[in-house]
Amino acid sequence: MTQVSTIGTAGVKWGETEKQQWLALQAVKRSYFDDVVSQIDALRSEFTVEQYGELAYPELAPATTHYPLFVIKPTVWQADKPTVLVTGGVHGYETSGVHGALAFAKTAAAQYADAFNIVIAPCVSPWGYETINRWNPTATDPNRSFYTNSPAQESVALMKMVKELGVDLVAHFDLHETTDSDNTEFRPALAARDAQTHDNWNIPDGFYLVGDSENPQAEFQAAIIAGVANVTHIAPADDKGEIIGAPLEQFGVINYAKTKLGLCGGLSNATYKTTTEVYPDSATATPQECIAAQVAVITSGLGFILQQ
């Protein structure tokens, strides 16, 4: 969200003109088709891969730019087994969420195939992935848009796909990152767009989870933290006992009201829900470590559920 300070008038919410000015500053930096779709295609011999939607943005030039959305499912659906949802790339710029979902499909999903139907949507926001953005081309945050009559195509498509599964989810793992750019780019842009003042919180050095305040499942979250701690370091609370402005519920865990806030993690009534927050900007974290942490979240969480 480069040069966002040059857009609009301070204290006035953006209109369509300002949003178009913001969009004109965005540029493609990597390829969804080369980085993500190619990996999904390589999984077709092991899974059922379905296209569950296609994103088209008249705001973009050329207007013919379309992004197909893919979901990875078991080759044999077991109606008597519980269903688990894994989502990545709801915020497209959060790289390890996308590649963590794919890595889980490639390296670990088969271990749980007898116990669960596992459904993986690895990249919910392809344009955000390509332009390294939190928003979509209409300056809308898909991860605040999971509700009826949503303005975000990305959120609508995913909600429709999940509804059409026709089952209740036992678990939902929503894979995210917290980055230094959250404070240097994305929160300032949010403040400008909405004509609000935002006090930037400290970016925590390490991994943490966001549980659901309406259904926290503290033991489930703790089991995941224990598993991830074998891969990467867990974020401590700040001097206020908080992480990103929210009170610490237990080591490495905060809670949000996910459904009320329109978060992806609140799109279902799954018994077990968690949102990951990997910290890729840590001096000690490698891209592969961040991906491995995302995989450890899912395997640790599924291991906990199997023990119940």
TrEMBL record:
Pfam families attached to this UniProt entry: AstE_AspA_cat
Ranges for domain Peptidase M14: 28-308
Record-level GO BP terms: proteolysis
Cofactors: Zn(2+)
Superkingdom assignment: Bacteria
Record keyword Methyltransferase present: no
Molecular function terms, GO-annotated: hydrolase activity, acting on ester bonds; metallocarboxypeptidase activity; zinc ion binding
Identification of the protein by name: Peptidase
